[in-house]
């Protein structure tokens, strides 16, 4: 059986052990027939690990909602649209709703792989896996998402409070023209027919 995986380099042995232990807890909760114990999972994380995730104030939530609404739809749905970082509960929710089995974290030559087995496509994507691994301080190397292995390049543009459309960290060439909207199919590295 061939698995999908996210390949990463470990920050250090203690962070790797913490990620592996957390992954096992996550796996147990995902496989359980009962409601996931999110409080126990959140309680496992250190303040440093939690600081990776977005914990917005009400004002920041409202500001993001206003920016989202004020941004033209053709740009809003494009890869150039800045987005906030993951919040912790959204990441956990992505795991609960992902159509896959969590398998293991294993050593592979000079790196490690977090293996999972999708039940079908689309299954929810790999962004939550990336967030999980990065929150423990590890570096993503590549991803095999079921369409072939690719080296990981972080294309995310993070939204921060104060950013408004047109976004200051998006180059003029990347911003949509009135009669030339951004075509998301032209900015992806995969063929148009590979949706995941």
Describe the structure.
The chain has 196 residues and is an alpha+beta fold. It contains seven helices and five strands, in the order βααααααββαββ. The chain has a five-stranded antiparallel sheet. A hairpin with a 2-residue loop joins strand 2 (100-108) and strand 3. Helix 6 (88-97) crosses helix 7 (127-135). It is globular and about 45 Å long.
- How confident is the prediction overall: mean pLDDT? 87
Overall geometry comes to globular
State the total count of DSSP E strands.
Answer: 5
Spatially, the strands of the biggest sheet line up as 2-3-1-4-5
- Report the biggest beta sheet as strand number plus sense, adding barrel if it closes: 5 strands, antiparallel
Secondary-structure-based class equals alpha+beta
Question: Which percent range fits the helix content?
Answer: 25-40%
Order of helices and strands: EHHHHHHEEHEE
Count of DSSP helices? 7
Fraction of residues in β-strands: 15-25%
First and last CA, distance: 20 Å
Rg over CA atoms, rounded to whole Å, is 18 Å
Unreliable stretches (pLDDT < 50, length at least 5) are 170-188, 190-196
């Amino acid at each position: 059986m061939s698995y999908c995986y996210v390949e990463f380099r470990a920050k250090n042995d203690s962070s790797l052990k913490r990620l592996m232990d957390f992954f096992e807890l996550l796996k147990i909760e995902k496989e359980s027939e009962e409601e996931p114990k999110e409080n126990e999972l959140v309680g496992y994380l250190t303040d440093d690990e939690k600081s990776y995730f977005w914990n917005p104030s009400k004002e920041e939530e409202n500001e993001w909602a206003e920016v989202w609404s004020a941004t033209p739809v053709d740009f809003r749905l494009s890869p150039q649209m800045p987005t906030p970082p993951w919040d912790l509960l959204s990441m956990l929710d992505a795991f609960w709703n992902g159509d896959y089995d969590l398998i293991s974290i294993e050593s592979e030559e000079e790196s490690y792989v977090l293996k999972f087995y999708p039940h079908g496509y689309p299954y929810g994507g790999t962004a939550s896996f990336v967030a999980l691994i990065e929150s423990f301080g590890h570096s993503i190397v590549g991803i095999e998402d079921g369409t072939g292995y690719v080296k990981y390049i972080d294309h995310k543009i993070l939204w921060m409070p104060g950013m408004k459309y047109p976004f200051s960290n998006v180059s003029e060439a990347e911003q949509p023209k009135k009669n030339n909207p951004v075509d998301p199919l032209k900015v992806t590295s995969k063929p148009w027919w590979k949706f995941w």
